[in-house]
Amino acid sequence: MFELPKAFSVLGLPVHIMKNYPDWLLDCLREEKGTHVVTLNAEMTMQAERNPALSKVIQNAELVIPDGAGVVLYLQYLLGQDVQRFPGIELAENLLQVVSQQKKSASIFFYGGAPGVAAKAADLWQKQLPQLQILGTHSGYHFPEEEQQLLQTLTQLQPQVIFVGLGVPRQELWIAQNRHLCPHSIWVGVGGSFDIWSGTKTRAPGWLANNNLEWLYRLYQEPWRWRRMLALPEFALKSLVYRWTVRCE
């Protein structure tokens, strides 16, 4: 029987904890259970507080994984859960590897990024895992009239796994709006993963990521993000207030 993941609340948003996310998603594929995967971090949590539409999408997602260090620390120290951070890019990579090992690989589609980035990322994975069925790619930068053509392509191809790299909250809202076109597919918001895979950008060194400082490397690469990084101390403060309030009720 299909087992639903156990959910915990982080500032009112669900986060699912399980031992093996890729294997659970593989079960979703086998049973043709349409799934929206959200990779939750502190910044997205704060955006959801100010954006009811985003909050609703996260609430309705079948799988919300602990992507950010702030979310993981909340689960560990405020809820006492034994949980590790699972970055969205690693989930996507593991999922690609898992499906490629099946007798018949699931079909894949990459949507997002600057012109040429998704295609370059797809080429990299096709070379690494030749058995993958990558049905197509599409840039995240296009004229409005191209949107309908993209939707028609997805409807026709019915890819089983669709990676959407449009950034938060655009990718989450776009998936929620269009997932009915491929109702049995797994839709994953992957943020800037295409940039990493294509070599356009690099991930933080391991020692930074292991010490919950990957955000600092992103700020170094993209200093214009400093205003968005203010969500991190805001998240920490709200977390303490929220847990204190709950315990006092």
Gyration radius, in Å? 18 Å
Q: Low-confidence parts, pLDDT < 50 over ≥5 residues?
A: none
Q: Mean pLDDT, as a whole number? A: 89
Oligomer: single chain
Report the sheet-strand fraction.
Answer: 15-25%
Shape: globular
| Major beta sheet, strand line-up | 4-3-8-7-5-6
Main pleated sheet: 6 strands, parallel
Helix residue percentage: 40-55%
Distance between the termini: 37 Å
Tell me the number of helical segments per DSSP (H or I, 4 or more residues long): 13
SSE succession: EEHEHHEHHEHEHEHEHHHHH
Number of strands: 8
Q: Structural class of the helix and strand makeup? A: alpha/beta
Short description:
By secondary structure, the chain is of the alpha/beta class. Helices cover 51% and strands 16% of the residues.
Description:
The protein has 249 residues and is an alpha/beta fold. It is built from 13 helices and eight strands. Strand 5, helix 6 (117-128) and strand 6 form a beta-alpha-beta unit. It is globular. The mean pLDDT is 89.
Key phrases:
249 residues, two-stranded antiparallel ribbon, alpha/beta, globular, 6-stranded parallel beta sheet
